[in-house]
Amino acid sequence: MEAIRAAAVRHNVPVGVHTALLYQSGWFVQWKEGPEEALHGLMEHVAADPRHHSLRIVHFSRGHRLLSGPWSMAIVQTDEPREVMARRVARLRRNMEEGVQYSPPAVWRQLSTPMEHPGASQQTNPDAFQRIMVCCAAGSTSFDLVQWLSRHKDRTVVHRRFAGDEGLDVGTDYIDFLDDDRVMRVIAMARKGLAVPLTRAFVPDYSHIIVLLSGEPERDLPLMQKVADACAGLLVTPVLLGVAEHPASHARPFALAHRLGLIYLDAQAHPQHSAGVWEAVYPLLARWREAANSSSLSTNSTFQFMR
């Protein structure tokens, strides 16, 4: 994967193409954005490589660019058979031929979500799915929260690895579970992962970003700045939901968010007590349909799939 990254960055940067690569269930998924002529040239180059076969194009659109850098990649760790992935690829190809297309993030989600997860078939319905990111200022309390939810809801955690063009390599876990009339996806994102272009492309999908504060400004404020950078330039931004043990810990994060034009809500709980964190934030997540839960199309975008 590192060799693929090096080659892609070398070829993408001169022609203004940005790429995200997903490896899952024996398939490679490429999401490319850039000038149309450059995209077609790269597609022809990929198709001519004898190491590739079973290539499918399942999406092509024009619009604003979503991928903010030349390279991102993700590996989803799942036991789902490649035949199940193949059926999803075939369905998207069939939809495209019939004139039905989704946004690039929606295509990515439909292919990267294991079919046994709740709401896998609801990925394109914004009224059925609520997505929440969790980040922490210290330790791994965001991942602890997702692990606790997996036990509490009796659902399987999906493990992923993300990387960017500058060597960023981070973990991210998520869990899907039914909650009344919605499917909730709670995603633990490593702090460094906020800088990965692929992560930023999906920020408009989140209704909230839960920020687990440490109470130490030297840790909390840099995290808040990373979150703000990930939200920069968006027409609609997620609601920031700060969680801290002491009310006074919210003062400076709130001021920073307010200065940057971001909505900041506060909740009191010890970040290391996952059950208490969820009890504190759950009522604040209820007004999710009024928050960001959609995304725009980007520049010339194409998806190709190979085994």
Task: Write down the overall geometry.
Answer: globular
Give the number of DSSP strands: 12
Q: Please give the CATH architecture of the largest domain.
A: 3-Layer(aba) Sandwich
The number of helical runs is 9
Key structural traits:
307 residues, alpha/beta, Alpha-Beta Plaits, Rossmann fold
Explain this structure.
This protein has 307 residues and is of the alpha/beta class. It has 2 domains: 2-116 and 296-306, Alpha-Beta Plaits (2-Layer Sandwich); 129-290, P-loop containing nucleotide triphosphate hydrolases (Rossmann fold). It is built from 9 helices and 12 strands. It has a 12-stranded mixed β-sheet, sandwiched between helices. The relative contact order is 0.18.
Concise summary:
The chain has 307 residues and is an alpha/beta fold. It folds into two domains: 2-116 and 296-306, Alpha-Beta Plaits (2-Layer Sandwich); 129-290, P-loop containing nucleotide triphosphate hydrolases (Rossmann fold, 3-Layer(aba) Sandwich). The chain has helices at 2-15, 36-48, 82-97, 104-112, 141-153, 197-201, 217-231, 251-259, 274-281, and strands spanning 18-24, 27-33, 56-61, 71-77, 129-136, 158-164, 169-179, 182-189, 206-212, 239-244, 264-268, 301-306.
